[in-house]
C-alpha cells in the first residue's frame, strides 16, 4: 500500500510540475522563467544555443502516460513514471540508483529540457526547436495495441498540429531546426509507407515531411542522416558531484576477480551465433576450472590480484534484470571485461551499464557502438576504452574470447579501465535539479544538446539572431 501511495504521490507531482509550465489547456511546454534553475544566462553565454520548447497539446505527451497498462503484450510502465521518469529508487536510502525503464528516456529528456539554461520563448529567435512528443510511448498502441493496422499513421496528427498551430515556425526552415527524442530503436519507426499487411514498427521516420527533423534515438540506422544515437538511460542518476565521486572511487577500488562477464539472454538455440559461442566458451571454461588448478591466473589479474573466475554469466532472460540493477551491477564491478554481443538489435543498454561499473566493454561489431554514439563515445578513442573482436572470428573461425582478453597486458588493462571511469559522466543522465557542481560536468543530456545544435547549425542557413524575449 505504501508503494502504491508513493507512486500516486510521485505521479501527482510529475503532473503538477508539468502543469505549472502552462498558461492554458495544459500546454505542457510553455515557457515559464521560473523553470530556469541555473544562474541567469547572458546573451553571450547562450549565443547559438537558444532552444524553444514547442507547445504541444497533452495528447502528445502527458496524456500518453495515463494508459500505462493498456497494451496487452507490453508490461505496465506505471511504476517507472516516478521521479519524473527515473522510476522508483532501488532502495529507500539510495540517492543515485533507480529502477529506470529505457522507455522513459522521452520523459527524462523533457524534464531536463525544462531546466535548460538557454530557453527561448519565441521560436523565431531560437537556434533549435524541441518537440516534446513521447513517440516511443505513443508507438505502443501501434506495436502492441489495437491500432496495429494503422501503424503507418503515427506522426500524422503531430504534423497536422505543427502546420496548423504555428505554421511560420514549421515552414521557416521546413522543420530543419526541429528535433525530438525516440526512446526506441529507429527501426521501430521505419516501416515503409503503404505496407500491406503492416510489418513490425510504425512509419514515423518514413514520413517525407519529417525527413528534415533531427531524431535522437537509442539506436540509429546506418544510412539516414536525420538520426543520431544517444545513450540508453542506465539506473545511475546522481544528484550531486559528491555522490558521483563516491561512485567513481568505488568502481576504481573494486576488486576485479573475474576476467570477463556477460549479462543478457539468448544464445541457447542450435543456430551458430555470437551469444551461443560466448555461452559455450564460458560454460566449458567453468567446467575446466572445477578440475584444474588456477595457479597461473594471477598473471592476468588487475592491480596485482589474481582472477578467481575466468568467465561469469548473469542470465537476464525475459527481462528479469531490466529494472533490477543489483543483479548485474555487482558482477560488473567484479569483472575486468564486459561482453556486449548484439542481439535482436546491434546496440545494448548493457554497454552503458558496464561503463558505469568501470567494466571494459568488449564489442563484436561496429554497429553496436562505434557507428552509433559518436557524440558520447568518440570514434577515435575506442581503442583506449574498449576491445573489438569480430563476431565472425568467434563464431566461424574458433577465436576464443578468453584468449584475446588474457593476452592484453595488465598495464594496458589498467589504462583502459581509467579511461572507462573517465567516461562515466558522458554516458549517464544526472538527476534533474542536480547540484551546480555536478552541472559543470557534461552528461549524456548535455552532449546530446551540443550535438543536436551543431547538427542543426550545419543544416540551417546562418542568420542574424536577436536576443530571445
UniProtKB/TrEMBL annotation:
<dbReference type="GO" id="GO:0016757">
    <property type="term" value="F:glycosyltransferase activity"/>
</dbReference>
<keyword id="KW-0328">Glycosyltransferase</keyword>
<feature type="signal peptide">
    <location>
        <begin position="1"/>
        <end position="30"/>
    </location>
</feature>
<dbReference type="Pfam" id="PF03016">
    <property type="entry name" value="Exostosin_GT47"/>
</dbReference>
<dbReference type="InterPro" id="IPR040911">
    <property type="entry name" value="Exostosin_GT47"/>
</dbReference>
<dbReference type="GO" id="GO:0000139">
    <property type="term" value="C:Golgi membrane"/>
</dbReference>
<dbReference type="InterPro" id="IPR004263">
    <property type="entry name" value="Exostosin"/>
</dbReference>
<keyword id="KW-0808">Transferase</keyword>
<keyword id="KW-0732">Signal</keyword>
<keyword id="KW-0333">Golgi apparatus</keyword>
<keyword id="KW-0812">Transmembrane</keyword>
<feature type="domain" description="Exostosin GT47">
    <location>
        <begin position="46"/>
        <end position="396"/>
    </location>
</feature>
<keyword id="KW-0735">Signal-anchor</keyword>
<protein>
    <recommendedName>
        <fullName>Exostosin GT47 domain-containing protein</fullName>
    </recommendedName>
</protein>
<comment type="similarity">
    <text>Belongs to the glycosyltransferase 47 family.</text>
</comment>
Amino acid at each position: 500500500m505504501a508503494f502504491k501511495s508513493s507512486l500516486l504521490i510521485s505521479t501527482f507531482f510529475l503532473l503538477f510540475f508539468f502543469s505549472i509550465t502552462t498558461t492554458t489547456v495544459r500546454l505542457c511546454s510553455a515557457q515559464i522563467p521560473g523553470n530556469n534553475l541555473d544562474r541567469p544566462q547572458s546573451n553571450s553565454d547562450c549565443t547559438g544555443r537558444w532552444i524553444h520548447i514547442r507547445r504541444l497539446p497533452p495528447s502528445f505527451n502527458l496524456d500518453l502516460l495515463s494508459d500505462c497498462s493498456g497494451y496487452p503484450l507490453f508490461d505496465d510502465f506505471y511504476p517507472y513514471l516516478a521521479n519524473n521518469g527515473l522510476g522508483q529508487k532501488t532502495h529507500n536510502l539510495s540517492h543515485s540508483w533507480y529502477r529506470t525503464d529505457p522507455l522513459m528516456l522521452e520523459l527524462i529528456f523533457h524534464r531536463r529540457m525544462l531546466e535548460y539554461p538557454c530557453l527561448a520563448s519565441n521560436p523565431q529567435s531560437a537556434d533549435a526547436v524541441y518537440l516534446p512528443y513521447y513517440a516511443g510511448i505513443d508507438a505502443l498502441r501501434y506495436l502492441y495495441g489495437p491500432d496495429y493496422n494503422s501503424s503507418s499513421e503515427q506522426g500524422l496528427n503531430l504534423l497536422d498540429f505543427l502546420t496548423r498551430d504555428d505554421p511560420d515556425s514549421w515552414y521557416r526552415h521546413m522543420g530543419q531546426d526541429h528535433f525530438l527524442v525516440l526512446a526506441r530503436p529507429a527501426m521501430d519507426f521505419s516501416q515503409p509507407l503503404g505496407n500491406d499487411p503492416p510489418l513490425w514498427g510504425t512509419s514515423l521516420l518514413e514520413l517525407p515531411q519529417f525527413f528534415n527533423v533531427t531524431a535522437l534515438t537509442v539506436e540509429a540506422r546506418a544510412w539516414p542522416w536525420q538520426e543520431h544515437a544517444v545513450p540508453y538511460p542506465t539506473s545511475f542518476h546522481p544528484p550531486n558531484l559528491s555522490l558521483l565521486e563516491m561512485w567513481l572511487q568505488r568502481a576504481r577500488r573494486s576488486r576485479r576477480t573475474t576476467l570477463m562477464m556477460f549479462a543478457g539472454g539468448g544464445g541457447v538455440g542450435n543456430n551458430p551465433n555470437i551469444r551461443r559461442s560466448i555461452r559455450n566458451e564460458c560454460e566449458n571454461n567453468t567446467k575446466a576450472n572445477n578440475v584444474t588448478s588456477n595457479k597461473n591466473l594471477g598473471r592476468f589479474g588487475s592491480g596485482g590480484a589474481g582472477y578467481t573466475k575466468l568467465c561469469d554469466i548473469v542470465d537476464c532472460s525475459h527481462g528479469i534484470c531490466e529494472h533490477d540493477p543489483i543483479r548485474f551491477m555487482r558482477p560488473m564491478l567484479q569483472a575486468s571485461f564486459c561482453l556486449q554481443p548484439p542481439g535482436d538489435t546491434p546496440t545494448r543498454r548493457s554497454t552503458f551499464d558496464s561503463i558505469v561499473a568501470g567494466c571494459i566493454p568488449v564489442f563484436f561489431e561496429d554497429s553496436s557502438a562505434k557507428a552509433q554514439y559518436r557524440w558520447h563515445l568518440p570514434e577515435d578513442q575506442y581503442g583506449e576504452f574498449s576491445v573489438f573482436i569480430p563476431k565472425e572470428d568467434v563464431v566461424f573461425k574458433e577465436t576464443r574470447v578468453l584468449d584475446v582478453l588474457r593476452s592484453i597486458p595488465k598495464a594496458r588493462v589498467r589504462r583502459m579501465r581509467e579511461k572507462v571511469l573517465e567516461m562515466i559522466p558522458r554516458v549517464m543522465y544526472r538527476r534533474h535539479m542536480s547540484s551546480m557542481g555536478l552541472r559543470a560536468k557534461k552528461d549524456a543530456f548535455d552532449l546530446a544538446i551540443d550535438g543536436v545544435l551543431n547538427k542543426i547549425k550545419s543544416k540551417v542557413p546562418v542568420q542574424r539572431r536577436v536576443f530571445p524575449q
